[in-house]
What we know:
This protein is an alpha+beta fold. It has one domain: Roll (Nuclear Transport Factor 2, Chain: A). It is built from one helix and three strands; from the N terminus they run αβββ. A three-stranded antiparallel sheet has the order 1-2-3. Strand 1 (33-45) and strand 2 (48-59) form a beta hairpin. 10% of the residues are buried.
Amino acid sequence: MKPGDITVIPEDIKDLARWAVRQYNKEHRTSLTFEKVDSWTQQEVPHGIQYDITLEVDNGGVTFKYKATVSKELVHFNRIPTNA
Length: 84
């Protein structure tokens, strides 16, 4: 990627970032407001996918950068036996 290239952030990544801000607000009794995703990466981990998201939030008119790490676990993935 070259400087000036535009990166389109997928909606599901924005949704994860919004969710992370809501969770942070609940746990820390704050009222940060999600503004945008700056960048993100994903990697496979033993039981799912981990997303590292750099995002911007508003806190009383001041913008801050945060990093959220969100793991989406693979739940109940089992082989179905076939009748022989």
